[in-house]
Write a structure and sequence with these properties.
By secondary structure, this protein is an alpha+beta fold. 28% of the residues lie in helices and 27% in strands. A hairpin with an 8-residue loop joins strand 4 and strand 5. The two termini are 26 Å apart.
Length: 360
């Protein structure tokens, strides 16, 4: 089992790889244009309302920074600006923002000139843009100086067939996994340690994500990726799940067709609903980090589930016409999934710094 010392949480654990650690190396995110993200969200046409929605392209800036600049231009508070999800800072990304401006005409957003972002389109809407309201994101990523293009293609085809572990990305845990260290100290201090509401959400999310990754890593390491009696199965494209107490031909057929998927726990109060050997594995992973598990329970989080594996949708790998040593990787991910989970299974990254400003 992947270990992480409760008292320090120093260093990043090595989550298990589905097909062994990649032998192919490449450079990643050398410049913002190497990592392009387009949000999958289609707002309604213009309608009466007090919210001005903006389709924004940003480069080298994080989402909250852009939100602050939009608020300043409109003369409103940051809380009046909405967006569906955080996007990478070291990237070129396109996403929607909303600004609440009751009783005002559409501002001249084209007059807002900024080196790091620009407004491409505006719409008037009746509601604020809420976190998580987008369907997902389209990614286009340049891999530079690929060590073995043929081996990369083979690895890519294998991942298209098998999927990848649905790990939460390292950016969820902060540099040097400091969010885990902070979460442990906060949980141990109890009411003696005051933490802002925003920080609380960050630490709870990091702790929960860590235990989830532990369970996924353990099942991958044991190659227990077929459906087992006692597994908690999730309906594809849904958050609904059920316990497969027994396996029959119909259930296995649904699993093999991708209609239902294996899950791992998002830790909370009580014990996960899994049964038998699966339950024992999940419980042992959480018990290996009691400070995190007990802290999540004390803060009242519910036991929830997340898919154990992540499929590659709309995926392609194409040569870079300008340089035969480079290629472009494209794929689509649902909301809440991490592009870095795919990258880590595909290549060994050379000289890459985590972008802590990304949540996806």
């Amino acid at each position: 089992m992947t270990e992480l010392k409760e008292e320090t949480a120093a260093g990043a654990p090595e989550w298990a790889f589905l097909h062994g650690k990649p032998a192919v190396s490449a450079q990643f995110k050398l410049q913002p244009e190497d990592f392009q993200v387009t949000e999958d969200f289609s707002p309604a046409p213009d309608e009466p309302g007090e919210h001005q929605w903006l389709w924004v392209e940003k480069r080298g800036a994080n989402t909250r920074y852009v939100a602050d600049q939009l608020a300043a231009f409109a003369g409103v508070q940051e809380r009046d600006v909405g967006f569906a999800g955080m996007k990478d800072r070291q990237a070129v990304t396109r996403q929607w923002f909303s600004i609440q401006l009751p009783g005002k005409d559409m501002l001249d957003w084209q007059a807002l000139e900024h080196q790091e972002f620009r407004v491409l389109e505006t719409r008037r809407q009746s509601r604020k843009l809420k976190t998580g309201s987008h369907k997902g994101n389209h990614f286009s990523i340049c891999l530079r100086d690929v060590s073995d293009m043929a081996a990369l293609q083979q690895r890519f085809e294998k991942l298209c067939s098998s999927g990848v572990p649905n790990y939460f990305g390292d950016q969820r845990f902060g540099h040097g996994y400091r969010n885990i260290s902070d979460a442990q100290r906060w949980f141990q201090a109890g009411r003696k340690r005051r933490v802002s509401r925003h920080k609380q959400g960050l630490l709870l999310s990091a702790a929960r994500s860590f235990i989830f990754n532990q369970v996924v890593s353990e099942r991958v390491a044991q190659q227990r990726l077929a459906a087992e009696a006692g597994d908690v199965m999730q309906l594809a494209g849904s958050r609904s799940f059920f316990v497969a107490s027994e396996l029959d031909e119909t259930l296995l057929e649904r699993f093999n067709s991708g209609d239902i998927r294996l899950t791992a726990p998002l830790w909370g109060v009580g014990e996960p609903p899994s049964e038998g050997a699966v339950h024992q594995l999940e419980l042992s992973c959480a018990q290996a980090h009691p400070i995190l598990a007990q802290g999540l329970q004390q803060h009242g989080l519910k036991q929830e589930r997340r898919a154990l594996l992540l499929g590659l949708e709309q995926a392609s790998l194409t040569p870079d016409e300008a340089n035969p040593n480079n290629c472009w990787l494209s794929f689509y991910l649902p909301t809440g999934c991490f592009a870095t989970s795919i990258i880590r299974e595909l290549i060994t990254i050379v000289d890459y710094q985590n972008d802590e400003n990304s949540a996806e």
